[in-house]
Amino acid sequence: MKCEPIPCPNAIIELKNISHHYANHIQALHDINLCLHQGDYLCLLGSNGAGKSSLVKIIVGLLEPSEGSVSYYIDRYAISYLPQESYHLASMPASVWEVILSGNQDRRAPYFLYKRGVKQYAKELLEDLNIGHLADRQISQLSGGQKRRVLLARSLVSKPKLLILDEPTTGLDTQATADLYALLAQLNDKGLSILMVSHDQDAVRKYAKNVVLIDKTIQFFGSKHFWHLKEQEKNQ
Ligand SMILES: Nc1ncnc2c1ncn2[C@@H]1O[C@H](COP(=O)(O)OP(=O)(O)OP(=O)(O)O)[C@@H](O)[C@H]1O
């Protein structure tokens, strides 16, 4: 199905004609045109190998696209990214508290100059994500699900304007998953823009505003309600 791109009046990021092939000639993405709006909750869907992680890495600047351009209409430092795997952070010789605060490293200020407000917000995040009891533990000694919650707190402590998450609920139990979605919805209500790679169809139905479905190229890009109708049609 060919979709017209939704208009971009309040775009914070705009992708134009993005294509990417890796050194082994695998074509991961072809001619992607996409925009992310201020206040959006955009879910990026696609099957394994469809190019989701490649696209996210291009958006956050970790991967240079073979073709096309990305335009940023917000400060790049206002973008926070929670990747699928963060081995280096999850194995750091540091406490949970230190790892969370390191998400707010002001590049111009020494480590000890954290403002009181940042520490207060870090404490709130510890509570919201139910990891307050872990604050003094070494992150390397936590379970996979606990580490993910710590890394989410780390990616939020700088109060980003855009949060990009790649499969954020991997390894979380039912309660932790529900808590995480509730927190994201709350932050989105307060103005945080969200781009989330997800396989969780229920979460997409419940929380997303817009949906982009890719399989190297864009298969669908539009409102969640329209996507839902298309899904229903397909299943009839
Ligand atoms: N570093 C790499 N070098 C070569 N090919 C790669 C590399 N990373 C990804 N690919 C290939 O690019 C294509 C897109 O991969 P990508 O990881 O972006 O997909 P994905 O949609 O995120 O998949 P998944 O849902 O399984 O995480 C796949 O065919 C993959 O094998």
TrEMBL record:
PROSITE patterns named in the record: ABC_TRANSPORTER_1, ABC_TRANSPORTER_2
Tell whether NAD is among the UniProt keywords. Answer: no
> Is Transferase included in the keywords of this UniProt record?
no
Q: Which Pfam families match?
A: ABC_tran
Q: Which residues form the signal peptide?
A: none
The record, for InterPro entries, names: AAA+_ATPase (IPR003593), ABC_transporter-like_ATP-bd (IPR003439), ABC_transporter-like_CS (IPR017871), Metal_Ion_Import_ABC (IPR050153), P-loop_NTPase (IPR027417)
Q: Which UniProt keywords apply?
A: ATP-binding, Nucleotide-binding, Transport
SUPFAM superfamilies in alphabetical order? P-loop containing nucleoside triphosphate hydrolases (SSF52540)
**Which residue numbers delimit the ABC transporter domain?**
13-233
| Gene3D superfamilies per record | P-loop containing nucleotide triphosphate hydrolases
Q: Which family does it belong to?
A: Belongs to the ABC transporter superfamily.
Q: What is this protein called?
A: ABC transporter ATP-binding protein
Q: Which organism is it from?
A: Entomospira nematocerorum
